[in-house]
Amino acid sequence: MPGIDTLDGLLQAVEEFDTDGYELPVEAAALDRARGSIEESGLLLLGEIHGVKENPLVILGLMRLLGLTHLALEWSENLKPQLDRYLTDGTGLDHPLWWLGDGRVTAGHFAMLRAIPGLTVTLFDGGMNTGDWSQRDALMAERVLAAAGEPMLVVAGNAHTLTSPTELGLPMGACLASARPSLASVRIDYGRGDFYNIEPRQIRQHSVVAGLRATDDGLVVGLPEFGEAMVPHLPVELLQERLNL
């Protein structure tokens, strides 16, 4: 069951996650555009569907290809002390905010973070839902820009990384593109597979081309097949108790 409900289970899943066995295929023109975004704006966006096992491998592949050591994640900024502890001594994963189960946090992410030497991590979610989608995204963009002192890959759910307004409102990506007009956004294109977001789910779409490529709609990383991530997830009642709600 990909939803993990014990700390020992999470630590074991992290240790078992292979960060070396995945190679990201790359189209030269697409890599040039990604590099251009980094060089001209200092940022590159990556939009994902939370809860896919291969998401952290795509992140790792892009970080290595682009020579980046600064990564920004759509995780609660309140977790930064716990993340620093984990990266220092392997502890800190018992905080209840790691265990919400929405797929943003997975065992593979922790393995990926430990596989990048000299990594700096920025967490840009405020941790509180204001009820105003656009306001939340604007605040996330502000936190990203405040932390953008060196070239950075910025990873969030794919609704937040679009660079123009949507029916949901004004996404973080559009706010960032307004401040950094040369910014590019990469979308992960999922084919067929399973993912975990609160519960096991499926995607059964058309066949996609593997790897980073340029399309008429922008930059895309194709994942023709993918699997469920191992996601820390505790029952709502237990989370409320531990968060004192």
From TrEMBL:
Protein name per the record: Haem-binding uptake Tiki superfamily ChaN domain-containing protein
